[in-house]
Amino acid sequence: MATHLQVAIPEHNLLIVGPGVLGRLVAQNWRQEYPGCQVFGQTVTTDHHHELTKLAINPSLEWTKASHKFPYVIFCAPPYQSSDYLAHLRLAASCWNGEGSLLFTSSSAPYDCNDNGFCDEDSPVVPIGRSPRTDVLLKAEKIVLEFGGSVLRLSGLYISFSEFNKGAHVYWLEKGIVESRPDHILNLIHYEDAASLSVAILKKKFRGRIFLGCDNHPLSRQEIMDLVNKSGKFSKKFEKFTGTDDPLGKRLNNSRTRQELGWEPKYTSFAHFLETI
Ligand SMILES: NC(=O)c1ccc[n+]([C@@H]2O[C@H](COP(=O)([O-])OP(=O)(O)OC[C@H]3O[C@@H](n4cnc5c(N)ncnc54)[C@H](OP(=O)(O)O)[C@@H]3O)[C@@H](O)[C@H]2O)c1
Fold it and tell me: Do the strands 164-166 and 156-161 form a parallel or antiparallel pair, or are they unpaired?
């Protein structure tokens, strides 16, 4: 009878804080890179522990018993579920043994631009105090950078795959009429690309760096929903945006991130993604 030799490779073990849609894709990519490694998942509830176990992600809730340290830690939990996001971030950072990488998936929201202008990795961010939403992200980034970790600022994530159907277009399609202005420019990245980019950063063992995740094809809200309507891939039709005076957006470009990592997205634009579904 064949026997299976399970070789654990501790130096590539990965802790995923927030093994949601992105975290699970990171786990999958990581295991392809390092077969035999162990992947751990830190959550806020036990709601998805069964699913995580089936995906070979060892789930845990036990921050207080966080005596175990990991060579690779990725924090990819969104802020809205946490009683104290910054405290959780500090705990996550203290679970890193300082050897491989620590990465925080932040957002491109803090870039200080709301006139549909151009931004890249080095564009200025809003000052602390302007909005609670950007404050929490900037403070979280600061914690990670001080620990020697790196930050990946992600643009709008989307996916359409089996049970996962997420993204701004899904939300707007559900509503049909949305009270936001149509000409606001948005930036997108497919969840699979955000995962491959995260893994590319983790593998390089950077210290204290900020990267940007986007597909370099900014689109207005109207352009996104026109593409959705014209694609014929959805049963519903989007009606309209009705806003007139809410802020505009920005046009992101991450050429520096791509060049440094030798990374390119699989879904080069939202239009390309629609062709694939
Ligand atoms: N969605 C976007 O457009 C967008 C844009 C820019 C950046 N991001 C960032 O991208 C990352 C991934 O987002 P996602 O959509 O993959 O998230 P998601 O699917 O909503 O992930 C939720 C997971 O995080 C866990 N979680 C939440 N708060 C936690 C905490 N404080 N400590 C530990 N676990 C926690 C949840 O635990 P339970 O299983 O207990 O519920 C769940 O497993 C996040 O950092 C988010 O801020 C998202």
Answer: antiparallel
**Cβ of 93 less than 6 Å from ligand 1:** no
CATH class of 10-165+189-216+252-266: alpha beta
pLDDT tens, residue by residue, 98-114: 999 999 999 999 999 99
**Ligand 1 atom nearest 48 alpha carbon:** 39
Predicted pLDDT of residue 5: 47
Where are the chain's structural domains?
10-165+189-216+252-266
pLDDT digits (tens, 9 = 90+) for 113-127: 999 999 999 999 999
Q: How far is the CA of 21 from the centre of ligand 1 (A)?
A: 8
